Amino acid sequence: MHLYLSQNPRTLYLATSSHDERHGHPRRALVFRAAEGKSSQAVVEFLRKDQVDLSGTLKVTNRMIKGCLGLISVDEEMFLAVIVSATDIGNTRPSSPQPESVAKIHEVAFYSLTSSTWDDFSSAYDALPSASFPDQTDAILRDAYSQPNSSATSLVEHPCSPLSKIVSAGTFYYALAPYWDLSSRLSRRLERDEQTAKDLGTYDERFVWNEYIVRSLLDFRDRLDAHEREELDRCQFIVLAIQGYVGVFTLALPAPPTHGSPTVATISLISRLGWKRAGTRFNTRGVDDDGNCANFVETETIFSTDQNCFSCVQVRGSVPLFWEQQGLQTFGQRIQITRPQASQPAFERHFAQLTEEYGYVHAINLLGSKENETILTMAYDRSLRNAPDLFEHNVSITHFDFHNAVKLYGHEGVIQALRRQENITDNVDKFGFTMADATSNEIITLQKGVFRTNCLDCLDRTNFVQDILSRTTLEQFLMLIRKEWLHQGTLWSYHRELWAENGDALSRIYAGTGALNTSFTRSGKRTLAGVLSDATKSVSRAYINNFQDRGKQIAIDMFLGNLSTQRQVTIFDPLHDLVNEALNKRLHEYSTTKHCTIFVGTWNLNGRPPSSEFLLPWLFPRSSVQDPDIIALGFQEIVPLSAQQIVQTDAEKKRMWETKILNTLAQRPNKSAEYILLRSHQLVGTALLVFVRKELTAVIRNVEAASHKTGLRGMAGNKGAVGIRLDYHDTNFCFVTAHLAAGHSNIEERNIDYRTIASGLHFLRGKTIDSHQNIIWLADTNYRIELENERVRALAQSDDYDALLAADQLRQAMDDGDAFTGYSEGPLLFRPTYKYDLGTDRYDTGEKFRIPAWTDRILYKGADLDLSVYSRAELKSSDHKPVFALFRATVRVIDHATRFALSRMLFDNVTSTGPGEKLDEKLASLTFSSGSKDLPPPSSDDAAWWDIPVIPPEKLPYISSKSPPYNPFDSPTDSPISSSPSSSEEELYQALTLQAPIAPQPLQAVRRPPPPPPPPRTRKPSTKDSPPG
């Protein structure tokens, strides 16, 4: 296929070539242009080629286009991603009735739909524009541009260059035919019926890496009628790509004595890398709240002849706990389990997904006896023991210290050591493999379980062991069909080569270098050259992972749509836009709200460890208030701010305070809730701890921590901030503790610190502090009071807070817009919290004789937050007094099943037509009237707007529609969907069969009447009534 460009309006045409048409592709074109005034909405048409005038267009590249990966919005511009270079890897299963060939992507180009700035036609030098092409083509040709992989130089990098580096690295693959699904393993494909198996929209969404950018095109495809959808698939305009590895070898094996000709066999290896927790080595570890783990790969070994086909599937993935590695990583891995008490729900979700997908699961943990790896192993084993009833013996584990086995037996002895593990050998027999008849695709036997192997990175050790398991299972298959093939050296040589290449490919993706130990995998021997190669790779990994991977992580997140600032490209569809607008207005019908209480405290500890002082007056200051749902505690100077601590922070003090607080929570009288430490994080002396009720861990998700230094102009962490963010049901919160610049007169430095933190503290996927719905700062802000020392002390002793507040530096900065703009603070009805003589309630009498100040503050922003208490506690073990606040927050709980049901109901009601009514005319007439300043007040629980007699009928809002005279988006008050959300099948069925009500008419009655009955159900539109795609 070829890609053409025209101007006015700027339009890209992806059209079949004569070569495509000779091979049976329909003569078609897929036409793209940007919707007017929108950087993330496109207009797409699927037309016959004779309906498109290509005479006035320019072919943007001489190279054949292999397919389209999708549409993406970057820097307020929209780009079409197309494959411009790919090679055929081979047919992974020649015995299949249809070829199952795979291509490797070598280069992807991104062409803008919105601007000519990035046009480069240097590769299309012999495709000169026709005479009818607009005059501005010459200007386009002169534009400075560098396509991401172009040799042309440019002063400005193409905005999609990082994306192109990711998808053009030789690790992406796609199926060369539309009728087979590369993302799904063989057993799943063979279980589908014939029609589903050939549907491009049927795939394993865990492994389709361009799902985010191709989603709009798949939705567009779904709206086409069946014939056009089939033709679109046959054109192969839309490509679904996996990342990982695909390798194929074909070989001749001896035939039985009764048959002279050899048997042609094919051995293939397909590794599918999951994208749901994708990233680089030190940036992405462990599991997320949905149970997706880092570096999750499904690897399938396929062996096929003209009679039988064999498939064996294994998976690998990071230890499914919340853990990470912070700071500069060399060869000693510093591991932190970030949510040691809150990993269980995510851990169980992960294994529940595996058992649902694969059946039995046997985990093989290859971590060793090093301190950090031992910590992970113990936590892994403990989490598995804590969930015995959930899996009903479907999940088991073997701990195998790989490095110790190599030390004892060498790499050669590891194979035998593994085969002596009864748990492993028993499960090899128990799980079996998938076997199918080559000619009929009939399944003879199905694999019943899967091995889940991990080491620290799930690369070198994991690949070595998976190679052994793959060979062991294939040997079992060969024992059944042809024993003599067990001794064919060529077969096992190819098998080793495939697994060595697989290890290298997966290692390059995750760690930036090839895998270690592959010299042994390839040759079966450990050589000096292999040892030197492994040493070189280790050094390269350390450099790449520490200094290059951050930019790569951002590019991965952008490609997957994970950045919080991204907007997914949509295809212009007024019907769906109307439905989405109506859904947003009817939020209350598929969601409820619940109230929660949040305790927030901040305390500068002056570098002191926990003492015998009781913390209950601070943590539970009001006995009449119920136990809070969330407790967020910010500490400053949790360690002394010495040079040694700044260079290498001691985390022991933080652990001591965690223990002290947990003990206080557990031992308090009349407790009604049990708390766990959800997450903690430390930056030198600044630390943030978040505790939650134990029963809430299943509904609190996406917990992340981040920090930002402000000391010594961002070089040192003696000053700075720590943030923790989380989603509680469908409402998000961000807690920030900070220690701003000290010094009475350093107001501007504090303002700068605040702005630096607000703009520079970033969570994963581009989230910032201000991207959250509810934000609470609990900090030692260090702002002082601009009065004489004696005056401040006298006013404090007399509790004259108004006079002190008038001279408060923070309030002045907020009023002037210099810091904390948009934030609120409760009334300061307590004495200044700094500075006291230790162990007393007496303000500083030392040599420096500090002026008392409200340095310790709690500020907040968010419509869901309601402050109920703001005060301080009279603890004496520091020179600061701790401050606390109690919030009552509103949390939104969305029932996604009910939302989907409502969406379908609205869509069906809008597209249903009466006798003689045309759908396109009805859609054209469905326009919302513009807002009017004369609109009546909104309805309340006591009165509806149409009950108010003073409103003239002509002032009533309406939906302009010729026929029928009702608003299909109105919310019926007696609808089951309008009540509290439910996911039951009965209520979903009722929701899907609802009709929309007639719009209410103005009534003079005093009492609110029930809404009028719905109109009779009209017929659903036929295919020919559907709006054009």
UniProtKB/TrEMBL annotation:
It is an enzyme of class 3 (hydrolase). InterPro entries: Endo/exonu/phosph_ase_sf (IPR036691), IP5 (IPR046985), IPPc (IPR000300), SAC_dom (IPR002013). Residues 971-983 have a biased composition (Low complexity). Its EC number is 3.1.3.36. It comes from the Eukaryota. Residues 959-1029 are annotated as: Disordered. The keyword Hydrolase applies. In the central section; belongs to the inositol 1,4,5-trisphosphate 5-phosphatase family. This is phosphoinositide 5-phosphatase. The lineage of its organism: Eukaryota, Fungi, Dikarya, Basidiomycota, Agaricomycotina.
